Amino acid sequence: MSELSSITYKQKILLYLNRFQDKKDRTERSEDVTQKGIVENVGLSRSHSSRVLKELVEEGFIEEKKSAVKGHEKKLKTYYLTSKGIKKTQNIFSEISNVEVNLLEEGKEKKISLSDLEKGEHPNMDILTALSILEESDNKTINLDEYGPMEVIKRNESAPEVEELYGREKESDKIEEWIKEDTPILTLLGLKGYGASSLAARFVENLEGRHVLWLDLKNLSGKETEKKISTFLKEIGVETENIIPELFYQKALLVFDDYYEVDDKLVRFLTQILENIELSHTLKIMITGRKGTPVYERFYRLKDVKAGLVREVELSPLDEKNAQNILGSNIKKKALDRIMMFTKGSPLLLELLKEGKEEELCKLTPWEKEQISLLMYLKTETLD
After folding, report:
1. What's the rounded mean pLDDT across residues 10-32?
2. pLDDT confidence of 1, banded at 50, 70, 90?
3. CATH number at residue 215
4. What range defines the domain where residue 225 resides?
5. Across the strands, what pairs with 310?
6. Could you give the CA distance from residue 257 to residue 190 in angstroms, rounded to a whole number?
7. Which of 47, 100, 111, 323 has the most crowded Cβ, counting Cβ within 10 A?
8. Any domain includes 384
9. Can you tell me the distance from the alpha carbon of 212 to that of 153, in angstroms, rounded to the nearest whole number?
């Protein structure tokens, strides 16, 4: 499909109904999936819609049935995609997503694909909205300045405060690459104290154009996590009882921090998201966790990584140069070698050593007091 003019009303209806497929089995339906809702949102006349809907039913792409509709006493005809319709819709989106259009923003014009536009900073600018604008535009240009910037909501109060990050340039670059690519889930994996949470917090702090919810799993059960997400959805204007499908339509980043020793409910919740994540074109999920997370607590497998659904980023130990930067002094080579042998390049342990926090080092490590005292001495062995 190389020309937008070749998109038919049938295809538009399929793209529209795809938004509501997850709500198919609800007892009470929304007016959005009635003929009236389709007419208002797709932009065709009622008489025309009757014929098009009938043809789509006959062709096996959608099903029609009488359902209870919110705000109506009598049952109304409602429409949903069949399995054949879902496959057809996926093909339509795949073809149309690469079509380039002219985009005008802040007085500057550029070409952009519809898929990139849908991932942009304007929540009301989905593909159907773009198509409607282009049909009425003489020069086939979408003027984003008429729609205003996205009002971003960030709920990252429980993220750690980060003053300085050392030696994480490569990992930071990988996160920046990920947020722009199609892979929906990123896991930051490292040993305890390697700074996965700090790295994620710094990224979130600088992120623009996307809603953010930070979930501190050390203090949240699976049930509490779902409640937090539900509250977050309400804040960005989504009222729903079924939070997973609604998440897929949001330009949001969910950060699940410290994914380690989590309960079964949270594992099932993330597994369910992963199983349906291909329905989403905007949602991003970041997980900070431990390399040693037990298999039974993992919600994804190697096949999901190979399929491009999950991207893993492993945090390496800090090198001697960055250890020196943390400790803040030019330590002698032999003394630094001993420090690296004990700390294994852990940013947390190096920070505690720098600050002289012997009690915390004692709690977090198997080191004896004599060993900690030795490390405190070694950090004073400088070339100055």
Report:
1. 77
2. very low
3. 3.40.50.300
4. 154-314
5. 185
6. 12
7. 323
8. no
9. 6
Q: How many domains does the chain have?
A: 3
Same domain, 134 and 158: no
CA pair distance 226, 134, nearest whole angstrom: 39
pLDDT in tens, 212-230: 999 999 989 999 999 999 9
Helix (H, G, I), strand (E, B) or coil at 45: coil
d(CA 96, CA 112): 12
Q: Which two tokens stand for residue 5?
A: 């003019």
Q: With the CA atoms of 52, 55, 59 and 62 taken in that order, what torsion angle do they form, in degrees rounded to the nearest 10?
A: 50
Cα-only R_g, the chain: 26
235 and 367 fall within a common domain: no
Record the tokens describing residue 8, joined without a space: 């038919």
Residues 128 and 40 in one domain: yes
Q: Where are the beta strands (DSSP E) in 132-249?
A: 141-143, 154-155, 185-190, 211-216
Same domain, 141 and 164: no
pLDDT score at 356: 92
Q: What is the DSSP string of 294-358?
A: -GGG-S--HHHHHTTSEEEEEPPPP-HHHHHHHHTS-B-HHHHHHHHHHHTT-HHHHHHHHHT-H
